[in-house]
Amino acid sequence: MSSSEPIPGPAYRIITPRLVIRCLEPKEAFLHGMAIEESLDHLLPWMAWAKQWPSSLQERIELLREWRGNFDLGINFEYGIFNPSEILLQGAAGLHTRHGQGVREIGYWIHKDHINKGYAVETSASLTKVAFEIDHVMRVEIHCESMNIRIASVPKKVGFYP
């Protein structure tokens, strides 16, 4: 690869009409943790990771360091979903690599105070575009509990199926 060719890899920052979707930083551990704690009752029935969510700030900082390192190494891509001024965390999403090379799985959760505003659809559509146009993957998937009707409607709204 010559120095003039773009380096393939993740988009660290995505700006949509209403959101900034970007790589989370360890310094945002408190903000991220508060958003999860405020939404925990909303997340527990659907997100297995919510049952083991780290309680201490130091554990959260370490987790976000690990996520940032994985992001930088191209292993997995965790994003925060922020308002345009980036002072309010409205949820989080990921472009996960667990299904092998050339495949990304989109995961997302929205803060309980921001559901039903279309943020999951806007985020998923943006991450789908990034996966295909920047990461050059062959397939993008969204997996969710079919009983979670609100979240299960997102793939259809993004255009994953008719």
Task: Report what the structure shows.
The protein is α+β, with helices and mostly antiparallel strands and 162 residues long. The protein has a single domain (13-158), classed as 3-Layer(aba) Sandwich (Aminopeptidase). It is built from five helices and six strands, in the order E-E-H-H-E-E-E-H-E-H-H. The protein has helices spanning 29-43, 57-73, 119-133, 149-152, 154-158; strands at residues 13-15, 20-23, 77-82, 89-96, 103-110, 139-142. The protein has a six-stranded mixed beta sheet, sandwiched between helices. Helix 3 links the parallel strand 5 (103-110) and strand 6 (139-142). Helix 1 packs across helix 2. The longest helix has 17 residues, at 57-73. It is globular, with a radius of gyration of 15 Å. It starts with 12 loop residues before the first strand and ends with a helix. The mean pLDDT is 91.
